[in-house]
Amino acid sequence: MDSNPLRPFRAGVSFSFFNAITWQIALGTPMVLFAENLGASTFIVGVVYSFVFLMAPLEVAGSFLLPRFGYKRLMMTCWALRSSFLIPLIWLAWKRPESGEGWALWVFVGGLFLFCFFRSWGNCCFIPWMYAVLPKPQRGSYFGSVQLAVGLSSIGTLFLCSALFQWMDTYEALTIEFSLALFGSILGLVAISALPDAVKPNKISFLDTLSIARSYLLRPSRYRYFLILQLVMTICASSLPPFIAYYLKVEKGMEESGILSLVALQSVGVLFAAYFVKMAIDKSGPRSIFLLSLSLYCATALIWSSNLNDLTTGFPIYATAYVVMGVAACFWFSANMNYLPLVIDEAHRPFVLAVHSCIVSVASGLSPIIWGFLLKAGSDGLPSINQGWFSVFFIALFLTSIGLIYGFMRVRIPEFHGESEWGFRAELIRPFRAITFSASSAFQSRQAVGKSNARSGKEE
């Protein structure tokens, strides 16, 4: 007999493994390359890349459905609907439309919009569901296993996609890749069905939490100061992945296989950075990790600016830049997730994190749209990028990073030493999940606020 208390939850690790296959393809670089082959402009690429961020507020709204439908039923329904909208994308790749055909772009954008729409409604379930059913002493071990599964799945998926682009023509590779994304989504559904359900949460009015949100967002505090710094960084950092991939494809003529190999190397950099942060952040505190991240973003801006001016070029330079980008992103997210609990009261933490993540997510979604509009070049309908504005983009990234280094140096950060909370440690290599962790936990705060109000009423 297996005495491992995590045995009933192994299906959750399997789900995370298969789910990573889906989002690496449908929301990552293969999606950007698909858009480019359809003749999408930088503006359209920015729009579709932004869907996952702009719909983050739906994750908070979706938590209102949990008391009625429960975790398992709601997530399986939304995940099944999400999966179904991969089918039009598979069909589109199989049809091999000519570049610039309007109907093909409408199918592509519409399919991804509905995929992200139902993903957001379902995403509110998973983290609070695991909160409710996992034994507290085993949470760290479970999410550590999830981290490893997602990292291995992401790297394997990206290298496989790279190989497919190398062995096949573009549309054949995209047909197989998006079919693989659908297959991963179906296997993820099977894994979810094997997880034990949790008791439905109590229904709590959202109005009880509005005063908390106002107090954190409107009054001067270290939290509001940090939120401003993070929004400033979001202006450039959230637009790096799609537009660099687009630039390498349309301006440098790099094959899809080469671009996917670079993204896989970026994931390797994230994994190594996550291991380093796990060892160091409890001793050094978040400030040093913030400063390291911003220094690496400065280096990223310099590398790509020199490439735009033909001072550096070649695959080794690109590989170095992608690894640096991966390490910088991991450092930034990990410092965020460890710093935020220090400036938010414990009683209000889940809800304030939900509001925070929605604000940052919307900003992360708007940034690629605005930059995509500015980077759009020419009127001949051919994919291209305005290199003048792209230079401005990297200058803005460099100056923003320098400014934030000064900002973090002048503010007094309450350093934290000791074991971090499991939720923040576990999500270092998964930016989307870090956002989801914050947003989907809103309902727990509403429960806590409701109970607190009930106690206050009795005391009065």
Write a brief caption for the model:
Helix content is 77%, strand content 0%. It is mainly α and 460 residues long. The relative contact order is 0.16.
Blueprint of the fold:
Elements (H helix, E strand, L loop, with lengths): L9 H17 L2 H9 L4 H13 L1 H7 L3 H4 L1 H14 L2 H9 L6 H22 L2 H8 L5 H29 L2 H24 L16 H9 L3 H16 L2 H11 L5 H29 L1 H23 L6 H25 L9 H27 L11 H24 L11 H4 L5 H10 L1 H18 L1
Helix pairs in contact: 1-10, 1-11, 2-14, 3-8, 3-18, 4-8, 4-21, 6-8, 6-11, 7-8, 7-11, 10-11, 10-15, 13-18, 13-19, 15-16, 15-17, 16-17, 16-19, 18-21, 18-22
Name the features.
460 residues, mainly alpha, 77% helix, 0% strand, globular, disordered C terminus
